[in-house]
User: Fold this.
Amino acid sequence: MLEEMRIRGLGVIDDAVLELSPGLSVITGETGAGKTMVVTGLGLLFGGRADAGAVRSEGAGALVEGRLRLPADHLALERAREAGAELDDGELLLSRTVSSEGRSRAHLGGRSVPVGVLGELAESCLAVHGQSDQSRLLRPAHQRAALDRFAGAAVLDPLARYAAGYAELRALEQELTELVERARERAQEADLLRFGLDEIAAVAPRAGEDLELAEEEERLGNADVLRLAATNSHDALLGAESGADGAGGDASALVAAARATLDAGARHDPALGELAGRLKEVGYLLADVAADLASYAAGVDTDPGRLSVVQERRAAVLRLTRKYGDDVAEVLAWSERSAARLARLDTDGDRVEELRARRTTLLAELADLASAVSKARRTAAERFAVAVSAELTDLAMPAAGVELHIAHTDDPDGLPVGASTVAFGPHGVDEVDLLLTPHAGAPARSLQKGASGGELSRVMLAVEVVFAGADPVPTLVFDEVDAGVGGKAAVEVGRRLAALARTAQVVVVTHLPQVAAFADRHLVVHKASDGAVTSSGVTALDDAQRRQELSRMLAGIEESQAAAEHAGELLELAAVTKAAGA
Assistant:
């Protein structure tokens, strides 16, 4: 619901604030006071085309601001969040500026957004009736959606099943197209995978084998250096030939000599005995290391044949790692993934047949559901036409009638519906168009082509009344709805607007007191002496002020006693009618 709107520098409006009510808000005022600029401002606020000619000549630009309050799960709030907007205490703030050169900027929830985002919000927030290019229900897609909500479960239930089947069909056809059109590419991919898998299988590498081979090649290629290092180290520890007394220049002999010296002095000080024991352990350790060195030197492999085998094996493994991974572990992972992918590719032929069979089944199911949806739509369209035509009779269009024309387009690749094969889409096979017969003998024409501005507004009012409760848009705006209407028909217009306001917020710009009498909030636009509307130019009227404004609208003057009495009668009639819920 739109709670408040501010307009500044637009047309004759200098600065004005409109506080709107949840029910029926009526805007009145003298001719030229700026009532139409209210509708223009609403259009700008919700993404309408910016017209530099509407900007006040003495100002730098025009500004329109609005405050929306919507349910937490409303589609408009979801779209606003996607655009980065922030809520202000549960409210969404919108603004639009237009410069005198025609440049336009939009803001939503404190963030600058493309103007198109405001237009997207209008789809689910606002419906303006009065100018054909603004009326949401003039678009066939909206007419179809509104008809479906009007029809209720008879259409919505089979349509939901149809939509699910249609989505499955689109996904299925996308997969099938990919499988068929890329068959050659997939065959080439399969050949490459087989070659790679065969190459890896021929080598059959083990995890970690690349590291093991590198280490072994390093040892075999440097066998003489390794054996000499181990031998020299062994001789340094034990000596090539130790003397009978253990004395010599090797490490073992020197440690033994040191120990013997300590043993000689240990009888004088136990501390030396402890140190001698530690040297004894050093001697044992040196002997162990020397034995291991001797064993290592004896075991060094110097077989040139083995080196050649290792080098060849390593070269084979390196060829794999250059193609399929940085190491053997990655090569083996590639092999596992490729084997799974190849298995899928090898079964593509079976998958194609499976998809084609499922498509045939789906098309038959969709044809049945589309026929059911179409039949239910036609039944609802007949009820709709009767109801709207009855409303038009009471809105001073007694010879007018409407119909929802439902047609199909032949398509040899479409769905079999009845005796024809017709095009289909996500919403079925029907093309819906709202037609108007303005008077007896006139041909039925699309609504935007067959009605004047005033007639169009009344038709839209009748349509909205019939759709009341089924249309999710929370705010409806009517301009020119009372054009060419007076007397009893004007009262009927007001009564229907009041009835519509029970399920939606309704904003009406009117010059008829019979309509204004039904308002829940009556706003009047006052024109200052210089032809501009000041910041206090839009006023919400109390009961006494409403009677005075209605008197002015009835008689053209504010002091007419007869007009005041008539205004009182209108207010009383409206109150009684609204209380009765009629």
Q: What stands out?
A: Residues 215 and 568 are 108 Å apart (CA to CA). The two ends are 23 Å apart (CA to CA). The first strand starts at residue 2 and ends at 10.
